[in-house]
Each structure stands twice: as structure tokens, then as C-alpha cells.
Design brief:
The protein has 224 residues and is α/β, with parallel strands linked by helices. It has six helices and seven strands, in the order E-H-E-E-H-E-H-H-E-H-E-H-E. The protein has a seven-stranded parallel β-sheet with strand order 3-2-1-4-5-6-7, sandwiched between helices. The N terminus is likely disordered.
Length: 224
């Protein structure tokens, strides 16, 4: 079940951006920089985003995305951009890897990204069709990390880096499926640390630019 914190009316001309698992630093950045004409729908297990034109729903991202989207679609009329930004905070160093935690991290970071994106496509984009999806520049965006591309200076990011690298590798396959079935492209943005003011500015600017950008190919971009 979901708990609603706010439910502003969604204007017909508004672009609906649904973000799953992005209620932390990234979500706060995006809600603070959200342009006019966008309704931001935040899905999180517990945390809300603040701001005008923001709707919050509470779901566990590791459970039943199909049922969750059935509930979401009864309230949200459409999804123009689906964003998967969740990641596990239980990452670890190589020497401290533990099987159960490692598999849970991959479930949230990688498998759930595929499952929630596929459920969004089934519930919203297959219904609207490839031509309409293309005309409205609808798309999916996954949030990765520059840590996926090389060893970092932080040894505790070993499992996180590996999970985000797996997400990057899955992306082209997800794009092909989405594009062939409903005309939806997939883009992956991989920002560096959001504690860096330059990265924050760059990430927000590129994200909102990408939301409106027509795409007909898979995109993987590092922001550093």
C-alpha cells in the first residue's frame, strides 16, 4: 500500500517524471531545481521530497513492482520519464563481502532497476504506443555512478562500484527491449560525488536537459 503526503493536480501539459529510490541527496537536488511544467512523482520506502508539484508515494522497491504500478497508475495519469535512482547503502570493502548483503545490494541496484522499468513500460508505455511515446520524448533514465568505471580511492565502495558497473552493462539490453516494444529509449547518467558543488550543478542541469531531449539510441554519460 502507499501513503500519500501530497497530491497536487497534474496539469495536462505537465511533464510527469517518476523517480524511484531517489529521495536522498539526488532527489532533493532534483526537486530543488525542478523546472516549471514538471510534476515530480517520488517513490520511496519512507522518505518524502518537498516542493511544489511533488507527489510522494511509499513502496518497498524490492517487492512487487507490478502491483505497485497498478496502484500508481490508478492515480498518476501517465509517466513521461521513469527514473531509477535507488542503491543500497550497505556496500562494503572486498575483504568484508558477505553473501547475503552482497546479493541484496545487487537486487536493489540492478535487478529492481530492470523490474521497475519493465513494470512501468507494461503499465504505461505499451498502452500509449511507440508513436505517441516518441512524439512526447518519453524515456527511462537510470542513475549510475562514476565509481562504476574504475577503482575509487574509497575501498568501502567495492561492492557499490561492482553493482553500478553491472547496471551499466545491463543498460543496452534494457534499451533494446524498451525501444523495440514501445519506442522508449534508455539513458544512464553516472555522476560523481554530489558533495562536489560542480558535480551537483552539472548533474541537475544535464538531468533536466535529458528529461526533454528526444532520443533514439542508448546513452551512457559520465558526469565528473
Amino acid at each position: 500500500m502507499f501513503r500519500r503526503s501530497t497530491k497536487p493536480a497534474i496539469a495536462p501539459q505537465n511533464r510527469v517524471v517518476l523517480i524511484a529510490g531517489g529521495s536522498g541527496e539526488l532527489g532533493q537536488l532534483l526537486s530543488a531545481t525542478k523546472p516549471d511544467g514538471v510534476t515530480l512523482v517520488n517513490i520511496s520506502r519512507q522518505r518524502d521530497l518537498e516542493g511544489e508539484g511533488v507527489i510522494n508515494y511509499h513502496f518497498d522497491l524490492t517487492r512487487a513492482p507490478e502491483k505497485s504500478f497498478a496502484q500508481i497508475s490508478s492515480i498518476v495519469p501517465r509517466v513521461d520519464v521513469f527514473v531509477y535512482a535507488a542503491y543500497s547503502r550497505a556496500f562494503s570493502t572486498f575483504e568484508r563481502l558477505e553473501r547475503g548483503a552482497f546479493l541484496k545490494e545487487y537486487e536493489l541496484d540492478v535487478f529492481a532497476a530492470a523490474a521497475w522499468t519493465r513494470a512501468c513500460a507494461d503499465r504505461f508505455w505499451l498502452r500509449t504506443g511507440s508513436r505517441d511515446n516518441s512524439a512526447h520524448a518519453r524515456k527511462a533514465i537510470w542513475i549510475s555512478s562514476v565509481a562504476a568505471f574504475a577503482k575509487t580511492a574509497r575501498p568501502e565502495l567495492a561492492s557499490y562500484s561492482a553493482a553500478k558497473a553491472a547496471l551499466n552493462a545491463l543498460g543496452p539490453y534494457a534499451h533494446d527491449y524498451l525501444f523495440e516494444t514501445s519506442g522508449i529509449p534508455l539513458a544512464i547518467l553516472a555522476p560523481g560525488s554530489l558533495s562536489d558543488p560542480h558535480i551537483r550543478t552539472q548533474t541537475a542541469a544535464r538531468f533536466w536537459e535529458l528529461v526533454n531531449e528526444p532520443l533514439d539510441r542508448f546513452v551512457l554519460e559520465r558526469l565528473s
